């Protein structure tokens, strides 16, 4: 990739990322103003005390059952693990967060307008902004949704937008959107539980900062779901649909249902009669108005999609198309978070909102374009190459970490199906002080804020900060050893 597109590392606490690598730098070097109180507090603590608090947090998370499932762990099955929690928070000053929040709201608004358009008038396709084949031929596009009206024209009621930070040219610490998660975004329960843990372990530290609350997220979520109810019912029955206890995010499904005061159901708990969805209860059937689904499209309705699925009730799509139940997020939202559509989001913002994007995409090459394909093939050892329909780190090449044999094999796959791949620079994610065995050290992080859409676009002032706990690692995914931090937005 050209030199002008390279992203350099940024440290959240110190203005010089190289200084952050030196021993005790986080305790002695001059911090950014919004980290000053945290540094003073850290200077007053013994490392043994902090390590003890860290171990206490791990024990409490395990005792409460805050876990996720890891599939195929190499030991003959699936295992339940706690996500490692780092006790050093990530901090945003108010003005910085306001700009990020404004950019997120703008982006999600445009994505919802795009989803309405591709399932109705196709204005953006007719205008040639996005090639029709990229959308209508996409595996996540659902023809069954064409012409279906959804309440408030909102398709992505809950969006988890992955944000990374780096220095790009002369723009120090710029935010970049890495990807848009619009199908069944997860992780918000850990955002809430991390805050509870910090309040339990370090009330004195929180008292030194005016930190915006995040505990009210379930109330905002329930309100957004209720607004989606067909006919704008004043009283409606909301349920959370889970694949079951063996799903990796089952803790979150149960947590959110409990926090919202609604029922947690599986496919077998629901049935469809006369195009109306009902929940089985001990008092008899009860009509369901809104389903917050944590099940992928393919498994929602065996009558419409995969016949072998038992995760959703037969006839659900019929009831949905008839307008008798709301599904959040809507069926077909996946077309907007596909990696082949991601490069066009800035153009969506210009097309639908007549505004310039506040947040930038990561520089991206589309391998379906011959010129860009040539560059990618010549620089596979420097780039991250991703399948456009891939997720969870699968179907991906990280060039700098790959062997020559792996690069050669991947080259053949890209040449065979170039339209299936995009490429990006190897991101140098921003670093943040993290407690490790030797003390405080920089570790790479990203951020997933959660944006709620209903009558208005809203979000809590916070998000899930994920941290790569291994030195020099850029992998923040929990299934590959990543952890989480509390995210503080200063009032």
UniProtKB/TrEMBL annotation:
<feature type="domain" description="Circularly permuted ATP-grasp type 2">
    <location>
        <begin position="89"/>
        <end position="468"/>
    </location>
</feature>
<dbReference type="Pfam" id="PF14403">
    <property type="entry name" value="CP_ATPgrasp_2"/>
</dbReference>
<protein>
    <recommendedName>
        <fullName>Circularly permuted ATP-grasp type 2 domain-containing protein</fullName>
    </recommendedName>
</protein>
<dbReference type="InterPro" id="IPR016450">
    <property type="entry name" value="UCP005522"/>
</dbReference>
<dbReference type="InterPro" id="IPR051680">
    <property type="entry name" value="ATP-dep_Glu-Cys_Ligase-2"/>
</dbReference>
<dbReference type="InterPro" id="IPR025841">
    <property type="entry name" value="CP_ATPgrasp_2"/>
</dbReference>
């Amino acid at each position: 990739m050209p030199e002008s597109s390279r992203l350099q590392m940024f440290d959240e606490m110190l203005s010089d990322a190289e200084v952050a690598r030196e021993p005790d730098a986080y305790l002695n070097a001059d911090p950014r103003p919004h980290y000053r109180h945290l540094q003073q507090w850290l200077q007053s603590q013994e490392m043994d005390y902090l390590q003890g608090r860290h171990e206490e947090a791990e024990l409490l998370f395990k005792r409460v059952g805050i876990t996720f499932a890891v599939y195929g762990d190499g030991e003959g099955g699936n295992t339940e693990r706690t996500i490692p929690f780092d006790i050093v928070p990530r901090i945003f000053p108010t003005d910085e967060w306001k700009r990020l929040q404004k950019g997120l709201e703008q982006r999600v608004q445009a994505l919802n307008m795009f989803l309405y358009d591709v399932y109705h008038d196709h204005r953006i396709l007719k205008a040639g902004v996005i090639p029709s084949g990229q959308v209508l031929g996409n595996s996540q596009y659902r023809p069954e949704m064409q012409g279906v009206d959804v309440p408030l024209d909102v398709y992505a009621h809950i969006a988890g937008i992955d944000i990374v930070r780096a220095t790009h040219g002369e723009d120090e610490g710029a935010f970049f959107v890495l990807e848009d998660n619009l199908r069944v975004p997860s992780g918000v329960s850990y955002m809430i539980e991390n805050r509870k843990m910090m309040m339990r372990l370090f009330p004195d530290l929180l008292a030194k900062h005016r930190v915006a609350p995040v505990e009210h997220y379930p109330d905002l979520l329930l309100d957004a779901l209720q607004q989606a109810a067909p006919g704008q019912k004043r009283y409606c029955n909301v349920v959370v649909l889970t694949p079951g206890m063996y799903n990796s995010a089952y803790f979150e499904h149960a947590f959110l249902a409990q926090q919202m005061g609604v029922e947690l159901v599986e496919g077998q708990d629901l049935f469809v009669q006369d195009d109306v969805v009902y929940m089985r209860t001990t008092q008899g059937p009860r009509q369901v108005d809104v389903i917050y689904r944590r099940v992928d499209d393919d498994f929602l309705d065996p009558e419409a999609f995969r016949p072998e699925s038992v995760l959703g009730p037969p006839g659900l799509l019929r009831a949905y198309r008839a307008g008798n139940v709301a599904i959040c997020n809507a069926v077909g939202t996946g077309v907007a978070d596909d990696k082949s559509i991601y490069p066009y989001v800035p153009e969506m913002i210009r097309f639908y909102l007549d505004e310039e994007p506040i947040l930038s995409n990561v520089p991206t090459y589309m391998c379906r374009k011959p010129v860009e394909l040539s560059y990618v093939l010549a620089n596979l050892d420097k780039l991250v190459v991703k399948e456009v329909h891939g997720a969870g780190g699968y179907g991906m090449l990280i060039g700098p970490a790959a062997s020559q044999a792996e690069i050669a094999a991947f080259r053949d796959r890209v040449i065979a199906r170039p339209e299936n791949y995009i490429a990006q620079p190897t991101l140098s994610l921003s670093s943040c002080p993290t407690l490790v065995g030797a003390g405080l050290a920089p570790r790479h992080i990203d951020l997933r804020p959660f944006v709620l859409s209903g009558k208005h676009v809203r979000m809590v002032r916070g998000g899930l900060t994920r941290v790569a706990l291994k030195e020099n690692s850029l992998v923040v995914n929990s299934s590959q050893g990543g952890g989480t931090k509390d995210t503080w937005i200063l009032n």
